[in-house]
């Protein structure tokens, strides 16, 4: 059995010293007999993001979060980053062994989350797995090798190429699901290629 933690966050900018996480979503999937059920999901919003961080308006254009928008009821609301990261750490600890962490730009997201949590006194240490999978980077390699024929490996182009419905791009909750679907498609393509070698 292999456990995959699929993670995404939306931030107020790219600088960990002055920007912060607005939404944080993660889902755990475990493989068993070729079935891959979603075991557990975490969706959180830091309701104090507007007051707590500097806001980069270019980043806000990317993630689509409006300064006064109503948020999906599927997000648990936390009044501070500390409370959000406490809840996330408790959720993580309850999951058991995690083999891989999967995400688009996963290195950025993980390092951003770890840095911000550390400012709150929470050290994720070895709780988050070191083995990271970024389906977009793998897809870039497949394009470079001539296996995938795409002009661009942007998330949007990859979703189209693999017939993945992605209506809410840059919404952390929705991005977790589409990232998982993308990883399964890329993983299947890699398996097919391996069988041809």
C-alpha end-to-end distance = 26 Å
Number of domain modules: 1
Shape: globular
Low-pLDDT segments, ≥5 res: none
Number of helices: 7
At the fourth CATH level, what is the homologous superfamily? Answer: Ribonuclease H-like superfamily/Ribonuclease H
Q: Indicate the CATH topology.
A: Nucleotidyltransferase, domain 5
* Helix and strand pattern: EEEHHEHEHEHHH
Secondary-structure blueprint:
Blueprint: E1 3-11, E2 21-30, E3 38-46, H1 49-52, H2 57-63, E4 76-78, H3 81-93, E5 100-102, H4 106-119, E6 132-133, H5 135-144, H6 155-161, H7 172-196
Parallel strand pairs: 1-5, 3-4, 5-6
Antiparallel strand pairs: 1-2, 2-3
Structural commentary:
Helix content is 41%, strand content 18%. The chain is an alpha/beta fold. The chain is built from seven helices and six strands. The mean pLDDT is 85. Strand 2 and strand 3 form a beta hairpin. Helix 5 crosses helix 7.
């Amino acid at each position: 059995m292999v456990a995959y933690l699929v993670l995404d966050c939306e931030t107020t900018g790219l600088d960990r010293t002055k920007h912060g996480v607005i939404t944080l979503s993660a889902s755990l999937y475990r493989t068993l007999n070729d079935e891959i059920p979603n075991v557990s999901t975490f969706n959180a919003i830091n309701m104090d993001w507007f007051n707590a961080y500097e806001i980069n308006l270019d980043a806000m254009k990317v993630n689509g979060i409006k300064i006064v928008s109503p948020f999906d009821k599927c997000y648990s609301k936390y009044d501070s980053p500390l409370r959000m990261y406490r809840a996330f750490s408790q959720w993580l600890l309850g999951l058991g062994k995690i083999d891989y962490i999967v995400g688009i730009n996963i290195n950025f997201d993980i390092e951003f989350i770890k840095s911000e949590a550390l400012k709150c006194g929470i050290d994720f240490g070895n709780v988050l797995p070191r083995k990271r999978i970024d389906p977009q980077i793998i897809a870039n390699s497949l394009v470079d090798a001539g296996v995938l024929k795409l002009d661009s490996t942007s998330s949007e182009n990859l979703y189209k190429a693999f017939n993945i419905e992605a209506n809410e791009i840059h919404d952390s909750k929705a991005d977790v699901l589409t990232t998982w679907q993308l990883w399964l498609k890329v993983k299947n393509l890699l398996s097919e290629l391996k069988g041809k070698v």
